[in-house]
Design a protein that fits this description.
mainly alpha, ABC transporter involved in vitamin B12 uptake, BtuC, globular
Length: about 270
């Protein structure tokens, strides 16, 4: 059976994460929420400690903490606190506290590097079920709310005039981001999730003429990076999570060169 091979499971996991991260990453780029994504991702390591402490699935623990962080940052934004400063403090504090909390788990053997940088080669069938379930839920939600989310992103006044609540749409984005972080932690780790949210959309932006095209192209870049990074990691015996991000970064560099070439010819 295909799923008996750990390489097939790893490939399917990478594709699932890319499929969820790409369209959401477009909104992260458009709204300039890169720090927000990092803060939510870094907080997930606290979720790992929570899950191991109470003997529950890591996905569930990461989801609870990521949802809490996303809700906290969303509620504090705009309350006389510089958003970038707030996100920086929360991101680094959550990561440090999470690592310290994990160190207190004496009766649990844990590979901390796997949660920080991912361990896609250790993905199980149950992990695949969680990843693809979360990915399909994210894609379905974004497809359903696409028009409202896009309008609220482009112009909040226009959104209100159209009967759309920008605050509600932002909350939907933040909660969706928490789900993506939770399903991605096994594949690329908390330190690299932000890169998978940002780099593929940034690479796709050069070739896209519409927001919908950018989301589709970003998905293609993300999936190609996941599979290409997996193959490169297998061939060169390098860490898989960072290699996936490195391939995505190479795609961004290539797209930037193409974009500059177009500007010169124009």
């Amino acid at each position: 059976m295909i799923l008996d091979s750990f390489l097939w499971r790893a490939g399917l996991a990478g594709v699932g994460v890319a499929m969820a991260a790409a369209p959401l990453g477009c909104f992260v780029v458009w709204r300039r929420m890169a720090y927000f994504g990092d803060a939510t991702a870094h907080a997930a390591i606290l979720g790992v400690a929570l899950a191991l402490s109470f003997n529950m699935p890591v996905f569930l623990g990461a989801l609870i903490i990521a949802l809490g962080m996303a809700s906290l940052v969303s509620s504090l934004s705009g309350r006389n606190v510089a958003v970038d400063t707030l996100l920086g403090v929360l991101a680094h504090s959550a990561l440090a506290i999470g690592i310290v909390a994990v160190s207190f788990l004496d009766n649990v053997r844990i590979d901390l590097m796997a949660f920080l940088f991912g361990d896609i080669l250790a993905v199980s069938r149950m992990d695949l079920l969680v990843i693809w379930g979360g990915a399909l839920a994210v894609v379905g939600l974004l497809s359903w709310r696409w028009s409202a989310l896009l309008t609220a992103t482009l112009n909040e006044d226009l959104a209100r005039a159209s009967g759309i609540d920008p605050v509600r749409e932002k909350l939907i984005l933040t909660l969706t981001l928490a789900v993506v972080v939770a399903v991605s932690i096994k594949v690329v780790g908390v330190l690299l999730i932000g890169a998978m949210l940002i780099v593929p959309p940034a690479a796709a932006r050069v070739f896209a003429k519409t927001p919908e095209q950018m989301a589709v192209f970003a998905g293609g870049v993300g999936m190609a990076s996941a599979l290409g990074g997996l193959a490169a990691s297998w061939h060169f015996d390098t860490p898989t999570g960072p290699t996936i991000v490195a391939v995505a970064a190479a795609a961004f560099v290539l797209s930037t060169i193409v974009g500059l070439g177009r500007q010169v010819r124009a």
